[in-house]
Amino acid sequence: MTICIFGDSIAWGASDCEKGGWTDQLKNRLMFEDINTYNLGISDDTTNNLLERFEAEATARNPEIIVFAIGINDSLNIKESRSISLEKFQDNISLLVDKAKQFTDKIVFVGLTNVDESKTNPYLETGESFNNQTIGEYDEVIRLFCEDNDLIFVDMLGLLINDEDLCDGLHPSSIGHQKMFETIKNAIEPLWKE
């Protein structure tokens, strides 16, 4: 069996120098099940970016399970607008699922994580910012889409709540990634045991 995890820097494992992030922890756990797990997270990716690369990367691996962990960069506030509008985001999520269904019906979305706004508003002196209200709006789009289309949604909001859970206000620390791994593993485990 093959699992492909498509996402951004949080899926990639940014800021977890100990275990490589929740995706690599899942990969290491599933080696014992003889399951190939591919970490296809790319830092700074939005749903626009993922749509450009999804088909080629999925075709090369032919996954039986597809996990999407994308959206936080879509919610980035740039001056008076957002990186990707909510309407465009919803369209992109729908297009990603249409493309994913060419490979499998086992499709999972990992919800967005909250941030520490004292460190992300603004973020890295760029003037751009991440805030929990906007993240919540994008997360709700994913959640409702999953409900309407009978897809697994793994809720992450409120999981990373302590200072030790986030490294720079946005990316989970090793402790945060561990919490994400445990939550995601428990939610999707039935898919590889079917």
Give a structural overview.
The chain has 194 residues and is an alpha/beta fold. The protein contains 7 helices and 7 strands; from the N terminus they run βααβαβββαβααβα. The chain has helices spanning 9-12, 21-30, 47-61, 86-100, 117-120, 132-149, 174-193, and strands at 2-7, 36-41, 65-69, 77-78, 81-82, 107-110, 152-154. The chain has a 5-stranded parallel β-sheet, with helices on both faces. The longest helix is centred in the C-terminal third of the chain and has 20 residues, at 174-193. The mean pLDDT is 93.
Going by helix content, strand content and strand pairing, the class is alpha/beta
Assembly classification: single chain
Uncertain spans: none
What is the highest CATH level, the class? Answer: Alpha Beta
Percent in strands: 5-15%
DSSP strand tally = 7
Helix content: 40-55%
Main β-sheet, in a few words? 5 strands, parallel
Provide a brief overview of the structure.
By secondary structure, this protein is of the alpha/beta class. Helix content is 44%, strand content 14%.
Q: Key features?
A:
194 residues; alpha/beta; five-stranded parallel sheet; two-stranded antiparallel sheet; 7 helices; globular
Summarize the topology.
Layout: E1 2-7, H1 9-12, H2 21-30, E2 36-41, H3 47-61, E3 65-69, E4 77-78, E5 81-82, H4 86-100, E6 107-110, H5 117-120, H6 132-149, E7 152-154, H7 174-193
Helix pairs in contact: 2-7, 3-4, 4-6
